[in-house]
Structures are given as C-alpha cells and as structure tokens.
Design brief:
alpha/beta
C-alpha cells in the first residue's frame, strides 16, 4: 500500500508539560514524527503547551501553537487551520485522551478530520478496562482476575471475592496515577476514592495481586497490511509490584526461555492485530515462573516510555517509523541497510542494555522512599555493555548520584546483615545498593530472592561482583595485580570506584591501565531504516569497531545526563541546537549522553553519538579517540560543568567561557569583590563551614537569612532560616560541608520582586533580549515561580539598570556564550543575587517568546577563534514585543499526596507551560489553563491569609468581588474585608468546629482557594487546605502575588473572552525593531 495522497495537512498533538510518568520521551517521539511527515511532503500543524522542548520551536513544524491542551482550544485551532488528519499516538497519554474527547464531542466529524495511526475505537479497546477485557476474552488470552467498580462499595465487594491483597487501576490514566496495592479494607477505601477521582470516566479496575511474578514487555510495530515485527524484548529485573517506570530493566531478556519469549510474541501479535493499532504498541506481560502461567497486564496503543527505551536499545526508531506507517506506507516500503527492508527486522544485537531510574525523594520532605504501582521516578539512564556486569555498573555511574559503583552507598556498609535484610522487605530506590551490602555481610542468594523476588541469576551476578571487590580490597593502598585489574575493568568496575576502594588516585589507576593496553573499545548499534548509520558504546570486552573520520574539524558536546528536578529537558534543547548550529558552520559534531528519553540521543541530531556516562574516564577515552578541536560544556546544565575543570587539567580544550570563570561565579567572596569593583549592590552575605561561623554571620546580617550549599543546581538544600535555633538545626543536618565547599548565607529580601535576564555575550559586548519578571516574590526558586516575559510591572529605569548590570558583569567576567543573571528589586533598588555563566533553564523560553536563536548565536561566538567569523552580538537590536508570555511551573504533588504543596527556595517542579497573549491577564489565565487547573470565571472563592499578607488581601478580594465571586473567609480575614466594605461570609478553620473549610472543599462548594501559610507555629495548621485543593483539583494560590495575577486574569477573560488562538509564527511576525 502506498502513501496516502488524500491528506495534506496533519495535526499532531504534543504531550504537554513534563510530569512524572510522562517525560521528554514524548518530545523525542513527537519531534521524530514531525521530521518523518515533513520529509514525506505533508504540512504539519503542531499543538503543545510546553515551551521547553525543541518540538515547539518554529522550525520543527510548519505551524506551531503553544496553547493549553484541551478540547475547546484544539477546536479553535482546528476551526482555524482545517487539518485533514490528526495523529494522536505520539503525544503520550495526553494526546490519546484528547483524541477520544474530541471524537466524543463531535469536533472531528464537524470539521471532517480523519484520525490516522490509531483509530478512536482502538484507543477504547486498548485503554477502557472493560473493552480491553472483552477483546482479550474473545482471543482466549488470560488476564488477572478482575472486575470493574464505579463506587467504593462495589470495590469492597469485589475485593472480598478475589481475596486481599488486590491492585486498583483507574481507567485512562498513566504512570499508575491514583492506583495502588491494598492489603485491607481501610486501605481500599482511601485508594479507591482517589482512583475514582483520577479516572476520566470514574471507573476503577479491582484485580487479583500477581506480586512477585516476572514483568516482561514486548514492543511491537504493525503496519496497514498487518505485517508485525517485535522491536525489543524487555525484562524487568524488579518483579511485579514495582511500576515499570521505576523498575530496573534489561534488553534483551536475560533469564527468560526462548519458548516463553516465542509464546508471548505470538500472543502479543494476536492482541495488536485485534486492536488494530498502526505503528508502535507496548504490551506488558506477567509470567509466573512457578506455574508457567502468563497473563497480559495492559497495552499502550501509542509510543510510550518503553518505546523510547526500545528505540535507543535496538537502534530501531519506533516513532519515526510509526509516523511513516500512519500515512499508509508499509514495513516493506522502508529500506534498511542491514535487513533489506524493515519487515525482515529481528532484534539481534550482541550486547546488553540496562535502564536504571533516577528519583527525587530528597526534594519532598515527608515522602517515604518506597516503590509501588504508582510511578515515582523523574528520569532514567540507559547503558550498553558487552555483558550484564559491565552494563549494570555503567548504569550506576551514569546516574550522577555521586556513586561510581554499587558498594558503600550511604551508611549501608555499617549495618548488620539482619538490619539490611529487614530493609529489603519493602522495595525502595536504594534496593539494589542494599542487596550489595547484604551479600557482602554474608546473606545468601536464596535469602535475598525470598525477600525481593528478584531472579537468582541477577543476585548471583551481583554476588560475583561483591566477591571480586572483596578480593581487590586485600591490597588497599596499592595497585592490584595486572590480571585482577584487567578482570575488574572487564566486569565494569570504573577507574573512580577502584580508586575509592583501593584508596589510591584515579590517575594512578588510569595510567597503569593504559600502560597495560587496557583501553575502552567501541562498537556500533546499527540504526534500522538507514543505509549505515550507527551510534557507539564502549566496552572493555571487545575489539574496536569504531571508524574515525578526519575530513572536518570536530567539536564534542557534553549532554545533561538523566532528567531530574532542576536539570531537565531545557538543557537537552540547548545541546540539540548546539549540534545543529555547529553542523551549519562546517564542523563534525559529537554528542556524549546517556539519557534514552531525549532528542540529543537521536542518531541524526549529531554526526556521531556516543551513548556513554558523563564521567572523566568515559569522556577522556572518547576525546583521545576522536581528537576534537574543542569541547562544549556550557549547555548540559551542571553535569558537564562539574567535569570541565578536570577535563582541562587533562589537556582538553574547553570552548567558550573558561572553567575558572564558572568557579569565580560560584565563589561568593571572589564574586562579591567583583561586584564591589563594578559598584553593583548585592544582599549582605557570608560563607560558613562551622555552626559558630554560621551563627555569627547570621547575627551580623540579621534574620531571616537564605542558606544553601555551594555548587548545586535547582536549589538543592536551600532554605530560609528565621532564627538561631533553626540555623543550628540546618548546619547539623548539612552533609558534606568542607572548607572548599562551604555553606552560603545571604540576607533574605522579604518583599522583593525577583527577576532574571539571559544574555548572549562575546566577552566584550553582551545583549539582553528581555527581562523576565517573577510573579512569586523572592524566596521561591526561579524554576518554580511563574514568570512574565517581557516584564510588566518593572519600571523602565529598573529594566535599563538590569540590562546595564548584566552587560557590565558579562564583560568583566569575559563570558563567551550564554549567561543567566538573577536579580531582586527591593524598594526600587536593584540587587544582584547570582550569576550563572552558562545556558540556563530559561533559554528555550526566551528564544521562543523573543524570536531570537540564542544557542546558534552563542555557538557562533564560542567557535569564532576556529572559524574567524565576526561576533554577531554588535548587530543584535532591541525589539518591541507587543505581547506577553507567562511561564507557569507544573508540580508532581498529586503523586506525593503526603507533601504540603508550598513553594520555597528548593526547586520541586518537573516541567512548565507557556501562555501567550496581548494582555498579561489572559496570558496568565492561559498558563493556568495549560497546567490543567483552569481558573473559574464565577463561583465561590475561599480566602484565608497570614497576618503578613493582611495589608494586600483587601485589594485582591475587591477584584474577586468585582468579578462577581462569592467570598468566604476565615475569622480575621473576614472582619478585615467587611471593614473595607467587601461582602464576605465567615467559615470555620479545622479546629474551630463544623462545618469547616475542609467540609466545603470536600463537598465541591469552593471554586478557588487563596491561602498563604503563616510562619512556623501554624505551618501545620493549614496544610490540609492545600492538600485538599490538590485532591479535589481546585485551583489554589499560596502567595498574594499569584492571587493578584489570577484575579487580573479572570477579569481580563470575563471582559474580552479568550477566543483567539495565534500560531507562534504569526506572533513572531508582530515583533518590530526599536528605532
């Protein structure tokens, strides 16, 4: 069957902001789809609310809408653009759900839009629990015994019949949201109520527990002629009971017999054929090794997190191929250098791939580190090795958690065997590190298997590593024998870990290993559907099969490693742009990264990709092999910056801002001296190593103060400290404080407006496209604060000052490339908070709103010494931007119901959205709508604020009254409003009697909440309000600034409506140069 010619314009729905369970793997799949379909000559209209991804850059699709993802907005876009077709299966769960809703609402029929790739009824057969069960029954494929419940009482009756424990799974959700494993009646009541809430259709499946079975996944691709291939077989090393997104996995399957694999493949083909998905489908199986029974858990009729992993593990670009198949091409129509055509593809790599998750428990106080059926991971790494041990140890050092091997994590080596075994009873993110120490203390493979249900093979492999390590430690302080060293390298022990356990320098290990001729060799992974493209992985167990070209000068870009809170997709965006810009300038580009979810690890983003950990050992080996003219470290966030100085010591040329300058910005004393020289004000501050230092400095500056460790990203460990007692507590809890890594203490600017500026600098000139104004006041991390760009409430004089300070600092520091500056304005005076001489998380935002290509400009500057091109900076002009962009952060609090969702100096958001409009009010309204908490235009608002905020509450309440809201308020707030002539009704706080605030929220009688917490003593008092708001999906504002902006947004939309949608390309056409 040939490509369809009856469709010309295709609408692609993106996956929206990054959340737990739906991360950047969907930007990778969506970006690939745009590429594939444009190559085939289709016109692409893209809608996605996420500004951080390369997908929403104006070059990727023909027409780009950064708009909230909901039926009303997409109908507005369809009415305007009139696409012929909609491709829904590349935007994660958001894309699929929206497609179903658009079909139900009759929008697709009304505008005559066809769905391609996966049919609407196929989504139902795959996603709706009842439909799926019918389909499986008709195929004779067994599922876990289960029944559907629409109420808690029904669920109780079903659980009684099946016997506890049971698993609850809400329909149409992802990342296991709202579900869970329950062992008794009380737990069932709680989780079931949450699940019915989380489900689109108020439907929860109650099923028998299959805890401890093997969890296996197959990634299947089908075309319109019903040809099917299995791209990848994935074995979860953690058994059932741990969500696949948290489980650590291997591909190929290492302990599953050929027979079982074949049987699962046949059954998977039956399912995919019955559901009729075209493109990729992920099928999850449970297999009981004791009885050999297998049951299907679920399918995802779309590209999923596993398909990004499967693509990178096998070299088969699932999303790209899925998009091509959706247009009517078949697998036989796609040529491939290795197999002839893709219908002959089989997964036959002779290597092992390991995926390991990265969590963020340390960011959420009060959350237990416990893994279950609800996903908790925020990112992942993938590593490739010749054998299990090599790949496994490589994955550990890819994680960037400061661990270079499995042993001696935290204080586990201090615990007894009994204590360690007790810790293994419940699965946690530390499970495999605890197993390692338990084996060292003499636990048997059988004992560990009993507790964890991890297969014997994996525990035996780990035991062999423990034994090898114990043998190596026998001669501490010296190099091991040559045989022992060679074997250790083959089993994946890193130079750094060997140096740690042997207590000798890493350099000594490296030099001796090289003198023995033990060096990394590289092998390629062939990319299916291309004549001969490949990407490379290192091994100490093979011959070098890595051809090196010498035609063009090469530049190596260091990526950002695994996604995490504080270092996300924005840095990947910068790396991708850097690679594309360098290619245009005639360089050969090399990317080093280990994150399977991203666009930077796509085979054609760079000329050559190394799928490797970002550690000194791995990067130096590649540098030695490829001999690039320079390395770029300023685009991958903190990851490559932490390596830069060591690389430079080893003779590596770092392009752009010098590592010494980056250190200068981190060293508060040097930085303060520079600010004094430039006569730029900073808040009073100091550095402390001991508790006494800290108390003395804080006394001198005056409380409250802001404290934080040096050299961190995403506000790790930052806090506002109000008194001496808390200061002692903070210092005692601070880990790893040394004289060269002290604690930084600053005066906390209470009622200051925070703002930031990104600059492009060539060392003598700097250009600032726009100043971003934060909506939340100082004290909320910049990554978590909503921000307005260009700024709205900052005086022209202050904007001028900010731009001038930024230029002065960039020139004084000789910044070459990008830089980010943070400022605070208190009583009209601008203070500098910090300078980051590197790409920051706001680069994509500024690039999109101001229509300026920041990364390509920076690349032009950092390579000018090699190309001889003049600096682009002097030619950049100030612009009039006739609209506002409002960035709003998205938080994972719904996944952590036990956490108080307050904002503070430590970053906790996982992603962001953008609202664009001519009026600031509407832009803010759209940004809130895009985070899926739409602001109400009428109804009841509950107001309860702390004494600090009483002066401002009257103005906010007046705006809500003007918008026609009914106001209910706590005792003091209520009397204050009445004194000022505003109608309000008093409502009890939790401890003041019934009916109280919690009752009215629970009964759905509140449409919006404004609640600011008062200091320490009553922090516990009102967290129930904010938790209830999240549970009931009621929009809530925890700062007065956000409440003001919300009232402003509601008034703007009530007055003018919000009917107009404009594409990014149209908006950019409205920008003019300033005279």
């Amino acid at each position: 069957m040939a490509k369809r010619n009856d469709i010309h314009k295709v609408l692609i729905i993106g996956s929206g902001p990054i959340i737990i369970g739906q991360a950047c793997e969907f930007d990778y799949s969506g970006t690939q789809a745009c590429k594939a379909l444009r190559n085939l000559g289709y016109e692409i209209v893209l809608v996605n609310s996420n500004p951080a991804t390369i997908m929403t850059d104006p070059e990727i699709a023909d027409v780009t809408y950064i708009e909230p993802l909901n039926v009303e907005r997409i109908e507005q876009i369809i009415a305007k653009e009139r696409p012929d077709a909609l491709l829904p299966n590349l935007g994660g769960q958001s894309g699929l759900n929206l497609c179903s809703e658009l079909a139900k609402a009759g929008v697709l029929d009304k505008y005559n839009v066809q769905v391609i790739g996966v049919q609407v009824d196929a989504i139902e057969r795959g996603e709706d629990r009842i439909e799926f069960k019918h389909t499986m029954d008709s195929l004779g494929i067994e599922m876990a015994r289960s029944e559907v419940a629409y109420s808690v009482d029904e669920a109780l009756a079903i659980a009684d019949k099946l016997g506890y424990p049971v698993v609850l799974r809400p329909a149409y959700t992802m990342g296991g949201a709202g579900g869970g494993l329950v062992y008794n009646v009380e737990e069932l009541k709680t989780v079931c109520a949450r699940g019915l809430q989380a489900s689109l259709v108020g439907q929860v499946l109650v099923e028998e527990s299959i805890l401890g079975w093997e969890e296996l996944e197959l990634e299947v691709v089908r075309d319109a002629d019903n040809n099917m291939i299995t791209v990848c077989f994935i074995e979860n090393i953690d058994p059932l009971g741990v969500h696949t997104g948290d489980s650590f996995c291997s591909a190929p399957m290492l302990t599953i017999s050929e027979d079982v694999q074949k049987r699962l493949q046949e059954k998977s083909y039956k399912i995919v054929e019955a559901i009729q998905v075209i493109g990729g489908t992920n099928v999850q199986w449970a297999h009981d090794p004791k009885t050999d029974r297998d049951i299907v858990i679920e399918i995802n009729p779309r590209t999923s997190r596993s398909s990004a992993l499967a693509s990178k593990a096998t070299g088969f670009p699932i999303a790209l191929v899925s998009a091509m198949l959706a247009t009517g091409l078949t697998l036989k129509d796609i040529p491939c250098g290795k197999y002839g055509t893709l219908d002959k593809y089989v997964p036959d790599g002779d290597y092992v791939v390991i995926k390991f998750a990265r969590w963020a428990f340390e960011k959420f106080k009060g959350v237990e580190d416990k893994l279950g059926t609800q996903m908790r991971a925020v990112g992942e790494v993938m590593s490739i090795g010749k054998n299990y041990k090599e790949a496994f140890q490589k994955a550990i050092r890819s994680l960037e958690t400061g661990r270079y091997g499995l042993g001696h994590a935290k204080d586990f080596d201090q615990k007894s065997k009994e204590e360690l075994l007790k810790m293994l009873v419940t699965a946690s993110s530390e499970r495999h590190f605890i197993m390692y120490e338990a084996l060292r203390k003499g636990a048997t493979v059988e004992e560990i298997h009993e507790l964890t249900s991890v297969k014997h093979y994996f525990i035996e492999q780990m035991k062999e590593l423990v034994e090898e390590e114990e043998a190596l430690i026998q001669n501490k302080g010296h190099l091991p024998s040559d045989e022992a060293l060679i074997q250790a390298k083959k089993d994946g022990f890193s130079d750094k870990y060997l140096s740690q356990i042997l207590e000798i320098s890493e350099e000594e290990v490296r030099n001796h290993r090289i003198s023995l001729g033990v060096e990394e060799a590289w092998e390629g992974v062939h990319v299916s559907g291309t004549p001969d493209s490949a990407y490379y992985y290192s091994t100490y167990n093979g011959e070098d099969k890595n051809p090196v070209s010498t035609e063009k000068p090469k530049i190596m870009i260091l990526g950002g490693g695994p996604n995490r809170i504080g270092q996300g997709i924005e840095f990947d965006y910068c790396c991708v742009h850097a690679s594309l810009a360098l290619k245009k300038l005639g360089f050969e580009t090399i990317i080093v990264n280990c994150n399977p979810e991203t666009v930077s690890t796509d085979y054609d983003t760079s000329d050559k990709l190394y799928f490797e950990p970002l550690t000194l050992e791995d990067v130096l080996s590649i540098y030695k092999k490829e001999k690039p003219v320079g390395v770029i470290a300023q685009f991958g966030g903190q990851t490559p910056l932490n390596l830069a100085a060591d690389l430079e010591k080893n003779g590596v040329k770092i392009l752009g801002t010098a590592p010494s300058v980056i250190d200068l910005a981190e060293d508060r004393d040097l930085f303060r001296a520079m600010m004094e020289k430039l006569e730029i004000p900073m808040p009073e501050s100091g550095m402390a190593v001991t508790v006494d230092d800290a108390l003395e400095i804080a006394e001198k500056i005056g409380y409250p103060v802001m404290v934080r460790p040096s050299y961190v990203l995403g506000g790790r460990g930052m806090e506002v400290v109000y008194d001496a007692e808390s200061m002692v507590g903070y210092m005692n809890a601070a880990v790893g404080v040394t004289p060269d890594r002290p604690i930084l203490i600053d005066r906390f600017l209470g009622h200051a407006t925070e703002c930031e500026a990104d600059a492009i600098s060539d060392g003598t000139h700097a250009f600032v496209p726009a100043v971003m104004e934060h909506i939340e006041l100082a004290g909320v991390h910049s990554g978590d604060s909503a921000c307005i760009i260009p700024s709205k409430h900052i005086s022209e004089e202050n904007v001028k000052t900010i731009k001038e300070y930024t230029r002065k600092i960039a020139e004084e520091m000789h910044v070459k490339g990008l830089m980010n500056m943070q400022y605070a304005i208190e009583n009209g005076k601008v203070y500098v908070l910090e300078a980051n001489p590197r790409a920051s998380r706001t680069v994509p935002l500024v690039s999109k709103v101001c229509n300026i290509r920041m990364v390509p400009l920076a690349i032009d500057i950092v390579t000018s010494e090699l190309t001889g091109r003049p600096s682009p900076v002097p030619a950049l002009k100030e612009q009039n931007i006739p609209y506002y962009g409002v960035k709003e952060a998205v938080f994972p609090f719904n996944m952590f119901p036990e956490v108080d969702p307050l904002l503070g100096p430590e970053m906790r958001s996982t992603g962001e959205v953008l609202g664009l409009s001519k009026s600031f009010g509407e832009a803010f309204y759209k940004a809130q709508e895009a985070t899926q908490t739409k602001l109400p235009l009428e109804g009841t608002v509950l107001i309860s604020v702390s004494n600090r905020d009483k002066p401002e509450v009257v103005e906010v309440a007046a705006d809500f009254a003007k918008a026609g809201f009914k106001i209910i308020a706590s005792d003091h707030t209520c009397s204050l409003l009445k004194e000022n002539g505003i109608e309000a009704e008093k409502i009890n706080k939790l401890q003041e009697g019934r009916p109280n605030m919690l009752d009215v929220i629970t009964n759905g009688k509140v449409d919006m909440i404004v609640n600011t917490p008062s200091g320490k003593e009553s922090k516990n008092d009102d967290s129930y309000l904010r938790k209830a708001a999240i549970k009931k999906k009621v929009p809530y504002m925890t700062t007065m600034a956000a409440a003001k902006a919300a009232a402003n947004g509601i008034l703007a939309v009530k007055k003018h409506g919000s009917k107009e949608v404009k594409s990014l390309q149209e908006i950019h056409g409205e920008i003019t140069d300033k005279e």
